[in-house]
Design goal:
rod-shaped, 426 residues, binds zinc ion, mainly alpha, 69% helix, two-stranded antiparallel ribbon
Length: 426
């Protein structure tokens, strides 16, 4: 209804305008050279309108023709973009499916279509790595490092490659660049800590590691690697504070205290540790400066005073007493240890030694010795240092297992050997 009304209104306006136009009086004469056009004013106005409309139409056509090349380039660009995006999708699918050849081919196609964008370079690199073409991946990562916003991604890829090649100096150089490009990244911190570990830069690893159960190991190793005695003492003290019952930590601290002239403090640390967790290495340290055999017995008694019933205390006292010729005391301690269930090889050997010293070369002595040695052959193994990761035995504690490279995995095993130990990854 509204449309009909509008149509009627428009028709009325046009009819009125035509009627008004037709009523304009006069005529128009136009001369051009030998031609003269003479017409009435309404017709002249109408011709002028038609001429204006024709000029506008012509202008439109000219503009359209001029825009053809530009429109063509735009279409081509859009087409390339669409093809490139499709190639990117295909790379992602191929990477997810583990199709190395397809991923590599499509990644190169995407790079050709879309140019060196962070996305295409990253895809080329990942596809290269998947296909084992580390050279291609490296070239893409290097190109990526030159990108203003995505340089870190390139450095990250190069760092991963360097770590995989175990090229530690190169990895450290790249890690420094990455740190400058993107400071404070947690991932980078972890990588740098790992690199510091691989290059055995313990002090740096300690700075980077944050809260970690292996800190005590790092502190001991940092103390051992530190040439400056004051700094070494500081690292050793940190280790001891971390775990005052862990023999290597206690010994690291006590040995530096001894070297600095604080013998009393060193002995007190050892005695404190013996109270919590006795260990033969602690006894060796405590008695090291006591050459006299009887004095050693007294020193051993002082050491074990706060934990005399521990099997380790009994074995220590038995050994030093035997060394001093006090076979009665040695036998007494050995018998208590046996009664308390100690069945280790070292106790059997100790008893054999006691028999030899006490009874000498008699028939009864030889029999008792033979009996003790026979028991030693089938006894439980002695406590020892073992890697909880690869189960390799070690003569002494070390921060890094030289068999598997695990850090902080060498632990004191005081019981029977087992094969189902919890695995602690290095
Ligand atoms: Zn190991």
């Amino acid at each position: 209804m509204r449309r009909v009304l509008l149509f009627l209104l428009a028709s009325a306006v046009i009819v009125a305008a035509a009627w008004l136009l037709a009523r304009i009086p006069g005529h128009v004469v136009a001369s051009l050279g030998a031609f003269t056009i003479e017409t009435s004013t309404p017709v002249a106005i109408l011709l002028l309108v038609v001429l204006l409309a024709a000029a506008l139409l012509l202008l439109g056509i000219i503009r359209g023709v001029l825009a053809i090349p530009r429109a063509g380039a735009g279409w081509r660009r859009r087409h390339r973009l669409a093809l490139g995006q499709r190639a990117v999708t295909r790379v992602l699918v191929a990477l997810a499916a583990g199709e190395q050849g397809a991923a590599r081919k499509e990644a190169r196609r995407a790079r050709h279509l879309l140019g060196d964008s962070p996305q295409t370079l990253l895809l080329v690199a990942e596809a290269g790595r998947l296909s084992g073409r580390e050279d291609e991946a490296e070239e893409a990562f290097r190109a990526l490092t030159k990108q203003e916003d995505a340089g870190f991604l390139g450095l990250r890829g190069l760092l991963r490659q360097a770590i995989d090649r175990r090229d530690w100096p190169e990895a450290q150089a790249i890690a420094k660049q990455a740190e400058a490009a993107h400071p404070g990244t947690i991932w980078l911190r972890q990588q740098r800590a790992e690199l510091a570990l691989q290059t055995e830069n313990w002090a740096e690893a300690l700075e980077l590691i944050g809260p970690d159960a292996r800190r005590v190991t790092y502190c001991i190793a940092a103390a051992d690697a530190e040439p400056d005695s004051a700094r070494a003492l500081s690292f050793a003290k940190q280790a001891w504070k971390q775990d005052p019952a862990f023999p290597p930590a206690v010994l690291a601290y006590a040995s530096r205290l001894r070297a600095a002239g604080y013998e009393k403090r060193a002995q007190s640390c050892i005695a404190e540790a013996w109270k919590r967790a006795p260990h033969p290495d602690l006894a060796a340290f405590a008695l090291a400066q006591e050459p006299d055999k009887l004095a050693r017995v007294q020193a051993a008694k002082r050491l074990i005073a706060n934990n005399p019933a521990h099997p380790e205390s009994r074995l220590l006292l038995a050994q030093v007493a035997l060394d001093a010729g006090l076979t009665g005391e040695a036998r007494h301690q050995a018998e208590i240890a046996t009664a308390e269930g100690v069945k280790q090889r070292r106790l059997c050997l100790l008893i054999a030694e006691i028999e030899e010293q006490e009874r000498g070369d008699t028939e009864a002595g030889r029999l008792a010795q033979r009996d003790a040695l026979r028991r030693a052959a089938t006894a439980e193994p002695d406590p020892h240092w073992q890697c909880t990761n690869c189960h390799a035995d070690h003569a002494a504690w070390q921060p890094k297992c030289d068999a598997c490279g695990g850090v902080g995995t060498v632990q004191w095993l005081s019981g029977v050997r087992t094969s189902g130990l919890p695995v602690i990854a290095g």
